[in-house]
Amino acid sequence: MSHQINKHLFDIRQAIEDIESFLNDKKYHDFTSGTLIQSAVERKLEIIGEALNRIKKKIARILDNITDAHRIIAFRNVLIHGYDNLDSKIIWDVCHYNLSKLKEEINNLMDN
Asked: How many CB atoms lie within 10 A of CB 50?
């Protein structure tokens, strides 16, 4: 894999780890009680989607190894362009139910 693709994969993994750290020991109420954590998580989700989009533009077949890669890219677009319609519960659920699988898939790609 090219250096640039590896960089994007690393950026995705780092963004996931950052989100995990931001939400460590937090409850939904903690997440929604202020804008700092929400903003940080949203930014990291944007980075994940953008990195996948850049990978898609370089070597689209890599996305075949990532569950819902196109939905993740679309979610990035919602975060950026639909900022005024964001649902905190959806963002919370994405972080708690989808990121671990994505991290596993990214780690597998980086190991190969």
From this structure: 19
